[in-house]
Amino acid sequence: MELCRSRRYRGLVFSGICLSILCLLMTEGCSRPMKILVVFDMRHGIQPDARVLMNDVQIGRVSDLTLRSSRESVLEVTLDEKYTMLLNSSTVFTFSADPADRNRNCLICKNCSEPAPPLTPGQEFSGMGILRYAVACLSRQFDGNLKQTLETEIRKAVESGEAFSSDVMRMLEDLAMSNREAFEKMLQDVSGRIERMDAETQKRLDELRMGVEQRADELQAEEESDEH
User: Fold this and answer.
1) Would you say residue 114 lies in a domain?
2) Given this model, what pLDDT does residue 50 score?
3) Last residue of a domain, one of 106, 128, 150
4) Within 10 Å of residue 123's Cβ, how many Cβ atoms?
5) At residue 217, does pLDDT exceed 90?
6) Does 116 map to a domain?
7) In terms of domains, do 116 and 163 share one?
8) What sign results for the dihedral spanned by CA atoms 170, 174, 177, 182?
9) Residue pair 182/139 in contact by the 8 Å Cβ criterion
10) Domain membership flag for residue 77
11) Do 161 and 208 reside in the same domain of the chain?
12) Residue 129's pLDDT is what?
């Protein structure tokens, strides 16, 4: 009887140890913190231990800062284990004053696409200025309804001579700044769909292109001036 009890006790202890090891391995393997890199080629004012925010929620911290060259600095970001699944390969990063401490800058991020390939440990991202960050997702999401809407608005405007709404003009400027190639291609597509492409219509289309691209270049120059 005592021998059976002893064996049963040792069996329970062994089972408990195995379960503990299994839980530990599962915890470490599935939900451990992840480190990624964010590279800036501009002044950003971010220091080690700066917070990383997504939708105003802290999801990690800057764990290290190194210089790759005289212009490039590399931020090592450690993401909290419960938030690693929220980010993906479409995530973009910029810097801003920390809402909790205006004397310090923090790193902020957002996803441009859902779904997208998941993060991988050590994955590298390019940090952006505030303005580029604001329009970063536009060039990645420039398809479907947005493209059709802009093409329709451009066609109506150049055919009728009417002015664009401020919202449409802002979207065109954002697109020209973030993805000039897509902007140029869109104008070519619109030109091919206009039934009566007379000299006046072509002039209005050319004026639109030059005006939008000039404004996009001005916005880009302002951003680069602010960052340096």
Assistant:
1) yes
2) 96
3) 128
4) 17
5) no
6) yes
7) no
8) negative
9) yes
10) yes
11) yes
12) 84
Q: Tell me if 108 sits within 8 A of 53, measured CB to CB.
A: yes
Banded pLDDT at 92 (limits 50, 70, 90)? very high
Asked if residue 27 belongs to a domain, the reply is no
Q: Could you tell me the pTM of the whole model?
A: 0.57
Q: Are residues 221 and 170 in the same domain?
A: yes
* Structural domain that includes position 187: 140-227
70: burial class by Cβ within 10 Å (0-12, 13-18, 19+)?
A: exposed
Dihedral Cα 74, 72, 227, 138, nearest 10 deg: -70
Count of structural domains within the chain: 2
pLDDT digits (tens, 9 = 90+) for 53-88: 999 999 999 999 999 988 899 999 999 999 999 999
Residue with tokens 């802002």: 170
Residue 146: C-alpha distances to residues 57, 139, 180, 199, 213 (Å)? 29, 11, 16, 28, 19
Helix (H, G, I), strand (E, B) or coil at 114: coil
197 burial level (CB within 10 Å; 0-12, 13-18, 19+): middle
- Cβ atoms of 111 and 88 within 8 Å: the answer is yes
